[in-house]
Structures are given as C-alpha cells and as structure tokens.
Specification:
The strands form 3 sheets. Strands 1, 2, 3, 4, 5, 6, 14, 15 and 16 form a 9-stranded mixed sheet that branches. Helix 3 (about 95-110) links the parallel strand 3 and strand 4 (about 120-125). The chain has helices at about 10-20, 35-50, 95-110, 140-145, 150-155, 165-170, 200-205, 240-260, 295-320, 335-350, 365-370, 395-415; strands spanning about 55-60, 65-70, 80, 120-125, 190-195, 210-215, 215-225, 230, 265-270, 270-275, 280, 285-295, 320-330, 335, 355-360, 375-380. The chain is of the alpha+beta class and about 425 residues long. The protein has 12 helices and 16 strands. The structure holds glyoxylic acid (GLV) and manganese (II) ion (2 copies). One manganese (II) ion binds near residues 87, 94, 129 and 387.
C-alpha cells in the first residue's frame, strides 16, 4: 500500500478556479477578507473539500476545518492548512498553495486506504493577511487565545466596520467566540506548506525548504505631527515638515536593520499616508506603518528601542511630535524537531534535496505554534517574488511539496 504521487493537474485546476474569485483581476489577485470574492472562494473551497470526502465545519471567526476521519478520532488530530485571503494586487499562490496541497494530500491519503489513527484536518485560517483589519493572522491568533471578542469589536476596517459586526452580518455565532481557542495538547501536530516568498531555494536549485524558525513580526503605526504650511512662503529653516521626519525614520530603520547582529532582521515602511498630500503644501501629518521582523526577539527589541530614542531626538531637531502605537509584537516560532525529522526522512526516502531555513514571512503556523508542535514545507518562488501579481511557483514543485506533506501527515497521524 502506498500513497500515490500528487497530481499537479489537480493542484493547477483548484488554484486556477480559486483565482477567479478576485476583485481586481486586471492587477493580479485581490481577495480581501469577507468581501464578496472571498466569501465566494470560501464556498468553492468548502465544496472542493466535500468532493474529496472531507467533513467540513467552521468556527465563529470563519476558520474552516475539513476532516478526514482516522480510526481513532478521539485522539488529538493532525492539521495542515493555510489561508485564501490576499494582500492587494497579489499573486495566486501565497496561502492558496498550502490549502490546495492540504486537500490533495488528504485525497491521496484517503485513496491509498492506508489506515491512519488520528483525524487529519485541512484548515483554512481566516485572514492571515492584515489587509482589511490591520492585524495579521486573525483566525489563528484567535485559536491561540490572542484575539478576544472584545478586541474583535474594537478592530475596525477603513469603513469603520468592526470585525465582530462583519462576522455577525455573515451569520457567524459570536456567542461561541470563546470556543475558537485551543489548549496545548488538543492538536497533535500542525504542518503548513507555503511558497517560499524569497529566492533562497531557487538560488540553490532546490525544490523543498524545511522551515526551522518563523521570524516574529512587530507592527507599529507611527504618526508624525508637524506644521502644515505654504510651500512657497515658508523658508526652509522655519519648517516642521512631517514627511521629512517620516523619511528620516524610514532611513534610520533601514540603517539599523542593515547593521543588525542578526542576519534575519528586516524592516519595512510599506504604508504611508501624507496629509494633505499636495504638491505645494508642506505636510502637516504623516501616518505610516513600520514592519520589523527577526528570528531573534531580543535583537528586534533592541532595534526598536534605538529607533524610539532616535524619534525623541527628531522631535527636538525638527519641532514635530511623534506618536508610536504597537499593533502586534509576535515572538519567533521554532519548528518542532520531531516533525522536521519526519520531513527530512520523507525527502531522503524520495531522493529529494532540501534546505533547512528561516521564514522571514509570517504564517498562521506562527500562531498555531503557541498551542501545537508545528513545522512548514516551503516550495520555490520564481525570482523570489511574492505579494506581487508576478508571484509564481511551478505546479510540479507544489506537487513535490504535497508528496512530502502527505507522507508527513500520514506518519504523524499514526504517531
Ligand atoms: C505575510 O504575508 C507576511 O507579511 O509575512
Ligand atoms: Mn502574504
Ligand atoms: Mn501567506
């Protein structure tokens, strides 16, 4: 009895169909949490899960669970999954590859008729991307007990709708919000296949990455208040230009990240809102995001403290006021050695070369790792590009990753 190899045509078909649920098809893929295309994509993926013999349920924040029952369903289950929401103008693989690989792996295990003790559950985590509510990993964060109903009432989108209101409007039962979270021991293991979103595997010519650490992100929202004034009438020495203060912070954080003692430090100013944003007006206010990540939590915090000291000096030198609000501050997550070993053995058995690596991108596994042993499989990203319409991973590479995933799920479910 063997698990047959994954069919890249199945993976391609589901990914291409998923990609039709898209609110901006002219510019890659955009599928934001609980917009119409995302709700339709959920319906489609649930149908696809049922077609493959899985039993589907959803929790109060919209995490989807599709179960392939084992011979001992009372044992803690083994999970695999990822997300189907996207950033704006994204590609069609980030998140989706992991969900589709999970469905294909479950199909292969079911069809192999090899007995497995534990239930295997394919999961779609709600909104890994922070696109709509500014906070990432909403579904897995709630599973880990780091997102309460009270917070869901406070989290607002650009239109002022709260996450709780949106969930309620779609018929989710908020009285069961407390039941979303899991305790340690309730999930035996959770594994996630994801595209690499970097160029390491491609540059090494390797088809598989095994993630040993997921960097922890900190997201800050920074507001600079200067003085809005006339671009012609205000001499250079009398300005309190909020945009220039923002620029200095952006350059400072780049410098700090580049000279960091950790090779995994990265820092990004990705969203900038300049007010009033006019060519002949010195900006009075700038609001911007700071995304800082590291596999070393201490190093990241030292950097943030240095940056805060710098903003204090800047307040004096430029006569501006700077306010910093922390949105999240996540710890790095270590993969479980035993699961890594299972993946390594599967690669060796199948004669597939692999590389152990750090994930600079965050993933739902980062949150799931708070209550369950986790590990991740990476498949190569063409040119290392992601969060971009040009994002691409060959279907054959996803199939190869799915073979390792299916093997791992089967071994873990009989562990
Ligand atoms: C997830 O998309 C991330 O920003 O790492
Ligand atoms: Mn992403
Ligand atoms: Mn992702």
């Amino acid at each position: 009895m063997i698990v047959k190899p994954a069919q890249s045509s199945n993976i391609k078909n589901i990914l291409e169909k998923l990609n039709t649920f898209n609110s901006d098809p002219e510019n890659g893929t955009t599928r934001v949490l609980f917009t119409e295309p995302e709700v339709e994509a959920r319906k489609y993926i649930k149908e696809e899960m049922k077609k493959n013999g899985l039993v589907v349920r959803e929790d109060s924040i919209g995490n989807i669970f599709a179960t392939l029952e084992g011979t001992d369903p009372d044992l803690p289950p083994v999970w695999t999954g990822s997300h189907i929401d996207t950033v704006l103008k994204a590609g069609m693989f980030d998140g989706m590859a992991g969900v589709v690989a999970g469905i294909e792996a479950a199909r292969l295990i079911k069809e192999s008729k090899i007995p497995h003790k534990r239930n295997i559950e394919v999961i779609v985590y709600t909104s890994e991307e922070p696109t709509r509510f500014g906070l990432s990993c909403l579904g897995s964060r709630a599973m880990a007990g780091y997102l309460s109903l009270e917070q869901a009432k406070r989290l607002k989108d650009k239109q002022g709708n709260s996450l709780a209101e949106v969930l309620e409007g779609l018929g989710y039962d908020l009285s069961k919000f407390d039941e979303i979270s899991f305790k340690k021991g309730e999930v035996f293991a959770a594994v996630e296949l994801h595209i690499e979103q970097g160029a390491v595997l491609e540059s090494m010519g390797l088809p598989i990455g095994i993630v040993d650490t997921i960097s922890g992100p900190t997201k800050l929202e920074v507001s600079v208040y200067g003085k809005q004034s006339h671009a012609g009438g205000t001499p250079m020495n009398l300005r309190h230009d909020a945009f220039l203060a923002c620029s200095e912070i952006a350059l400072k954080v780049e410098k700090l990240a580049k000279k960091s003692s950790s090779k995994d430090t990265v820092a990004t100013v990705g969203l900038v809102n300049v007010i009033p944003n006019a060519s002949n007006v010195i900006s009075g206010e700038v609001h911007f995001s700071l995304d800082i990540r590291d596999s070393d939590y201490e190093v990241k915090h030292k950097l943030i403290e240095e940056l805060k000291d710098f903003t204090k000096q800047l307040e004096k030198s430029r006569g501006v006021t700077i306010k910093i609000r922390q949105i999240n501050d996540d710890l790095p997550t270590k993969s479980d050695d035993r699961i890594i070993e299972i993946f390594e053995n599967s690669c060796k058995e199948k004669n597939i070369s692999y590389h152990k690596m750090v994930s600079g991108a965050f993933h739902d596994s980062m949150m799931v790792g708070k209550f369950a042993p986790i590990a991740m499989i990476f498949v190569p990203s063409k040119d290392g590009i992601s969060h971009n319409p040009a994002e691409w991973t060959d279907y054959d590479d996803i199939a190869k990753g799915t073979d390792i995933l299916a093997d791992g799920l089967l071994k873990l479910s009989n562990d």
